[in-house]
Design brief:
By secondary structure, the chain is mostly helical. The chain has helices at about 10-20, 30-40, 45-55, 55-65, 70-85, 110-115, 150-160, 175-185, 200-220, 225-235, 245-250, 255-260, 265-275, 280-315, 320-335, 335-340, and strands at about 120, 125-130, 135-140, 145-150, 170.
Length: about 350
Amino acid sequence: MLSRTQTVDSACATLAMLNIVMNASELDVGQRLRNLKDTTQGMSPARRGHAVSEDKFIRATHNAFGRRIDVLTADKVLEEKAEKPPTRPRKVVKKSVPKKGKTTRRKPDSDSANHYIAFIPADGWVWQLDGLCANPVKIRNVFSGPFHDSTPSIKQIHSNSPSGLIENDKPWTDAVVPTLQAYFDRYDSDNFSMLAICESPTRGIRSRLAAVLRKIYLVEDLLHGSPELETLRNETPLPIPRNNAGQLERYCLTNTAVFQTSLPEEDEHGIYENAADNREHLLDMWRALSTEISAIMGDYDGHLADAQTDQETSAARKEDYTPAIHAWMKTLADKGVLEDILG
């Protein structure tokens, strides 16, 4: 379990994501994060957090998503902290304990209202990783309850469990619910959100596309030389013709990758079973697979368009409109409009 303590302001979201991906052993995090993980392996959470804040790659990536006003605000807070004179320790006042059955709710302060924490399954436990805490917190032993491996990051853990942890078919995330409910009850606010780090959907779509292409190429091999197939190709061209490297590259595939794609045994058996005496069934299969390829391509293109929209939204969020607002307000003031509005 590798956790990192937050050592700088406005970095809790970045730290939460790092705490998740750095503990996913099956995930390829890339050379730069892998080097950071290796060099900080034996450090304490605080020292690991400091190493993260000093890492130029992480700092540049983090700041790339920030607005200029966010950076200026953070600098202002640091300036005020530096200029603020030290205060004397306050006397500890014992707070009254609320009566049993009553829940004390409080309004969130500026820190708690905008803070990210992470929950992950690792080493047989569900953990809460909070950059403001010195150490990770164990939420629940997943082997002690009816929780199963609903995510890739916990499959390896459960592979050694004799019970399989599927008594009531509950995912490990159900173990986090009581902790989340405690946060909801603690603060008088509805400003909560939950996010999940998951695999890009385009990877799964790409695998589906490779499998369907492998099937249709196999069907074409069995129909080789058939005049019916040539007629069908002319009437309904294949969305991605065989050996069209350019179109395959658009979906991050190659001919080699397609032909090396392994198919389930029942799928191959179903194709070969009809090869000898049911040529019409193979032609129907070709039509169905061609339609499926078009649908998968549309699904892939749709996700790419969504990703592009997200990037454009992120870029627009970083635009600094302060000079335009300042010029607009100055114009209103010069024309006396601002005085009328404020007066």
